[in-house]
Amino acid sequence: MSPVVGIVMGSDSDWPVMEAAAKALDEFEIAYEVDVVSAHRMPREMVAYGEQAADRGLKVIIAGAGGAAHLPGMLASVTPLPVIGVPVPLKYLDGMDSLLSIVQMPAGVPVATVSVAGARNAGLLAARVLAAHDEELLGRMRDFQQELNDQATEKGKRLRAKAEGTGGGFGFGN
Ligand SMILES: Nc1c(C(=O)O)ncn1[C@@H]1O[C@H](COP(=O)(O)O)[C@@H](O)[C@H]1O
Hints:
The chain contains six helices and five strands; from the N terminus they run βαβαβαβαβαα. It is an alpha/beta fold. 34% of the residues are buried. The site of ligand C2R has 18 residues, from β3. Residues 153-174 are annotated as: Disordered. It catalyses: 5-carboxyamino-1-(5-phospho-D-ribosyl)imidazole + H(+) = 5-amino-1-(5-phospho-D-ribosyl)imidazole-4-carboxylate.
């Protein structure tokens, strides 16, 4: 299967965070590619990647970067595809620098920014974008959401049982 999602990052040091996006796509059996593409360190290659992405068959780009994280925004400026930005936290500033570098895009150049280190949600959001035009994938996303619902309900049940054991505990669910 040829990749429909491009997962790119400013450095291979971002992979421990970005891996969660790949895992989410694996769960939905969505084909993706992974690469290092840095706006700062390899600007010409970055522009080429963004310009060619749609013609190569990609439908969504997930771009993660840390610090002065210009990669997601720069990619969004050269591709018509949806770009999801992942702020990668570095040693200093707890990812606030990455978040603010990605989230405040000028009007006309959107980047869908997820939370700091929120690569799993980036993968899930990419799956939802693809599911909008894919009934089968949409069904799997619904199943996934039901599973989340069931898990949360189960957690509530366990918590109430535990609280009842200590003399307290009540809830609206049964
Ligand atoms: N933010 C960017 C960009 C960019 O935005 O083009 N290129 C690399 N980087 C970031 O620099 C950090 C440190 O990289 P190194 O670990 O290679 O020194 C990484 O988080 C990377 O995403």
